[in-house]
From TrEMBL:
This is Small ribosomal subunit protein uS15. PANTHER family: RIBOSOMAL PROTEIN S15, BACTERIAL AND ORGANELLAR (PTHR23321), SMALL RIBOSOMAL SUBUNIT PROTEIN US15M (PTHR23321:SF26). Part of the 30S ribosomal subunit. Forms a bridge to the 50S subunit in the 70S ribosome, contacting the 23S rRNA. Gene3D superfamilies: 6.10.250.3130, S15/NS1, RNA-binding (1.10.287.10). Signal peptide: none annotated. SUPFAM superfamilies: S15/NS1 RNA-binding domain. GO terms for cellular component: cytosolic small ribosomal subunit. It comes from Silvanigrella aquatica. Pfam families: Ribosomal_S15.
Length: 89
């Protein structure tokens, strides 16, 4: 259940901060969000996949750390990112 190459490239292109950017916090959070959304859909069908759920919690924790870092370094970019991704309600 990996993110397809096309979807990954599209996400990177949408959230990058400059032309050769592939590792900024914005891009990393966007890619993690895509993976988290895929896993969430997976758990709707496979409710007893507890090992996968553990991986999901690790991804959520990693995303939380990146969001905390981005918020401390650039509040405006943080607000823009969470609005685009729709991860805070």
């Amino acid at each position: 259940m990996q993110i397809t190459v096309e979807k990954r490239a599209e996400t990177i292109a949408k959230f990058r901060t400059h032309e050769s950017d592939t590792g900024s916090p914005q891009v990393q959070v966007a890619l993690l969000t895509e993976r988290i959304n895929q896993l969430t859909d997976h758990f709707r069908v496979h409710a007893k996949d507890y090992a996968g759920r553990r991986g999901l919690l690790a991804l959520v924790s990693q995303r939380r750390g990146l969001l905390d870092y981005l918020k401390s370094k650039n509040e405006g970019a943080y607000q823009k990112l969470i609005a685009e991704l729709g991860i805070r309600r």
